[in-house]
Amino acid sequence: MKTLFTCLTVGMLGCSTLVAQTVQPNNQVPARPATLPAIYPAPVSIALGKGSIMLGKSVTLVAPPGIDTETTALARSILTQAGVETITAAKQLPQAFEGTHIVLGTGDAAIVRTALTKCGAVADSNTEGYTIASVATGNGALITLAGHDADGLFHAAQTFRQLAQRAAIPALVIKDHPSMPIRGTIEGFYGKPWSMTDREKHLDFLATVKANTYVYSPKDDPYARDRWRDAYPAATLAELGKLVAVARKNHVNFVYAISPGPTVCFSDSSDLHQLERKFSALRSIGVHSFYVALDDIEYTKWNCDLDKTTFGPSGPEAAGIAQSRLLNALQANLRKIDPTAPPLIMVPTEYYDAKESPYKAALRKNLDSQVVVQWTGTDVVPPAISIGDARAATKAFGRKTLLWDNYPVNDYGESTGRLLLAPYVRREAGLSTELAGILSNPMNQEAPSRVAVTGVAAFAWNDKGYDAERTWLAAARELAGGDEQATAALLTFFDTQHLAPTFGSQPWQLQAPKLKAMLDGVRDAIANGDVATRHQAIADLVQRAAAFAAAPDIIRSGTVDTSFAQDARPWLDAMQLWGRALQLTAAGLDAADHGSAAAARYFANAKKFAAEAAALQTIPGATRFGGPIKIADGVLDVFVADAPKLIAY
Questions:
Q1: Interatomic CA distance for residues 332 and 518, integer angstroms
Q2: 450 within 8 A of 193, measured Cβ to Cβ
Q3: Cβ neighbour number for residue 613 with a 10 Å cutoff
Q4: Cα–chain-centroid distance for residue 202?
Q5: C-alpha distances in angstroms, 629 versus 92, 331, 549, 612?
Q6: CA-to-CA distance for 238 and 386, rounded, in angstroms?
Q7: Residue spans of beta strands (DSSP E) within 277-362
């Protein structure tokens, strides 16, 4: 079906005077109105024009010289997936438009500036910023993807990927740029590290949410921690080199982190040279950004007598001075070798809270101001972070900190048996004024981690325009490949893994809020409703229980990313059993409501399924702490146990 576009001009030509008409073969079917697209992360600004653009089967791609091959390849892949069969390359814009032309480039190219001018758009001038302008013109359409720089152009292509999934691309102008310069993840959890395949998938995912940083810091890599002085075997170094190449393709900065703290001698020049040699080896495979982790170590004792001679008795202040000396030397060496390299990043031994201390004062006074300091917030696992909290950290460390957010990591005791799949919330809009960025510490399970990390990346990109619930929905839809039934099944599953624990007894997000609200409604209808209300509530429960029980099979059917189903296997198995228990519970309530003695049998079988579900364990070795799988615990199990007492039979 061919779509033609007519440009009507009134007075001077401009984006505001362009009206697109979708002309069907018989000219009798009107075009549907353009609608504002939902883009994640939310753009800084997006404005609809009039009309919409159908890509059709043939598109002309106009790209000036110098565009990186990854972005061009991404654009071509997006068009192919959108059903475009013929992509013709061109170097110039035509005098009169026939069909759809897509201009791809950075704002310093004359052809890109011309294309933006044609619809009155102005290029975004911020680092990593981009502008997308689409308009119907003549008998065709012009879509311009303009990056402020190469990274911005790549982000523009990622936004275009979302636009191209729609049936029609509306005439619009998007101007966008990140609010925080550093956005991404740190593979910094304890327990089984990700596989190289997991990491490659994660880097591909980070690109889709406009993240720009991945820190390689698995606690169980011996060459980065226990044996940090030893060189990587050639084969391992080669594998890391492949990973660095994947990161580069995705415009993600691969940061290599080393953890020498347990054994390093801060004042020993040979240890400094060992670190420099390790960095040099990583530089040979393309790494240009480095990180020294000094968390989870003792500073009440020195690792060598030379440190005692150099810095005096051990203690917090002396540790801060010693660490600063080593880090400053590494930073100076990095600048000497590569003046364009990003600054060194470090995580301090006092990495949480912002209380004044001798250690923080020593870092503030002695540490090179260019070195980036990570901070986990008000606690190791903070329930909330405010602008005031971040401002206190800025004061304590003498610089804006890079937030290490320990969500959704599940490597500590309170998270045993859980996937952490709640939305990313309780981080105050406006934190971008006091943070250098945010890195999420994900779970041992890579694919399920994307649910929360999507929120982290979206918040770091545009904290003031961030909507947690809508971003959560977008994460589910992305994992489901756009399938609405699978999206609904994922959201049902996410709700069973909504609890977000801390190191204490009180979680900062409650378990299964949607399921609890529904089950509480059933309880209330049984306790306080009339006959009709009670019947309806139980009938609704029967339907909801069926959907709950069916969700795992839908998630495992192949529509949802298969890595997710694999990582979540025991949780999906347990959910299916709990779903069966809930179905039998609903049947028992229905029977009891009708005075049937069959209710006892339904409830007894529900109890058996519940016991079987509660006995399922996590995958051995998959997480630091293994144990029973938790599914909507404190909500579903309580309801199944209480149901036989709700109606006398």
A1: 59
A2: no
A3: 23
A4: 9
A5: 60, 45, 16, 11
A6: 42
A7: 289-293, 345-347
What separation, in Å, do the N-terminal and C-terminal C-alpha atoms of the chain show?
63
**599: which residues sit within 8 A by CB, 6+ positions away?**
588, 589, 591, 592, 644, 647, 649
Distance between CA atoms of residues 506 and 234, nearest Å: 47
The residues facing 254 across adjacent strands are 214
Q: In the sheet that 86-90 helps form, which strands lie side by side, from edge to edge?
A: 45-53, 169-176, 130-137, 139-147, 98-106, 58-62, 86-90
238 and 165 within one domain: no
| Mean pLDDT of all residues belonging to the chain | 93
What does the pLDDT average to over 471-489? 98
Structural domain total, the chain: 3
Set 149, 198, 221, 296: catalytic member: 296
Average confidence (pLDDT) over 389-393: 98
Whether residue 242 is found in the same domain as residue 385: yes
CA separation (Å) from 423 to 196, 254, 469? 27, 26, 7
Q: Residue 20: which of 35, 36, 7 has the closest Cα?
A: 7
Token code pair at residue 364: 């503030």
Residue 525 CB: number of other CB atoms within 10 A? 19
Using pLDDT thresholds of 50, 70 and 90, give the confidence band for residue 505: confident
Q: Do 302 and 446 belong to one domain?
A: yes
Please identify, among 130, 147, 176, the residue that sits at the C-terminal boundary of a domain: 176
pLDDT digits (tens, 9 = 90+) for 161-194: 999 999 999 999 999 999 999 999 999 999 999 9
Average pLDDT over residues 358-384: 97
Q: Are residues 246 and 389 in the same domain?
A: yes
Joined together, the tokens standing for residue 277 give 């040699």
Residue 281 in 3-state DSSP? Answer: helix
Structural domain contains residue 504: no
Q: Rounded to 5 degrees, what are φ and ψ at 364?
A: -60, -40
Rounded to a whole number, what is the largest CA-CA distance in the chain? 91
Within this chain, do residues 118 and 247 fall inside the same structural domain, yes or no? no
For 571-627, write each residue's pLDDT tens digit.
999 999 999 999 999 999 999 999 999 999 999 999 999 999 999 999 999 999 999
Closest CA to 438 of 422, 418, 467, 459: 459
520: annotated active-site residue = no
CATH at residue 518: 1.20.58.460
Please, are residues 237 and 281 in contact by the beta-carbon 8 Å criterion?
yes
CA 552 – CA 575 distance, rounded (Å): 7
Q: Residue 285 above 70 pLDDT?
A: yes
* Residue 140, Ramachandran bin (φ over 0: left; ψ between -120 and 50: alpha; else beta): beta
CA–CA gap between residue 480 and residue 493 (Å, rounded): 13
> Where is average pLDDT lowest: 90-104, 466-480, 486-500?
90-104
Q: Which tens digit of pLDDT belongs to each residue from 90-149? A: 999 988 888 999 999 999 999 999 999 997 899 999 999 999 999 988 789 999 999 999
